[in-house]
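Dear Dr. H.,

I hope your travels went smoothly. While you were away I took the liberty of generating a structure for the chain from your last submission, since the lab meeting agenda had it listed for discussion. I wanted you to have the full record in hand beforehand rather than looking at slides cold. The sequence, exactly as received, is reproduced here:
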Amino acid sequence: FIILFFISYGLIKIFKVDRKQIKRDIVTIFSPKEETILKRIELAKGKKERKGFVQLIYDTEEILKLLDKQAEFPLVCFSSFVLGVLSIFVCLITMNLFLVPPLFAIAIAAPFVYMRNRGVKLKKMIQEELETALSIITNSYIRNENIVIAVEENIAYIHQPVKRLFQNFIF
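The corresponding predicted structure, in token form, is as follows:
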């Protein structure tokens, strides 16, 4: 493992490979390709669905958009790549070549699965916060019969990311 690391490091130094360019190349491999209009129509009609790893990538991108952390997508892709390479090294060290494909697939998908699980928790939290906010606003609306005033009175008690939606409503 150490020898392989030094050989890789030496090749990078000899060929003067830019580490930032390597990172960009890895991100472009994992970043979703631009969809054609025909594919979007097929997805809207329900004829063609994204499956497996491609769906994991799209889910991760959507979750990061919800969190306003789109800049972390390259980090997730890079960590997926690093885990995949480490899984290959582990299999080579243990001399178990039959374990390479399944362990590599699991290691590549692990960061994306983690983000999907984080997204499920986020959606539950948003749903609970939305229920709470609507309950507070409903009580205020019953009292003064003006929805804008009801939202303005209670905007301080609402937490993010639901608060942003109600601030846009007031605006």
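Two observations you may find useful: The CA atoms of residues 39 and 45 lie 10 Å apart. DSSP finds eight helices and no strands in the chain.

With kind regards,
E. W.
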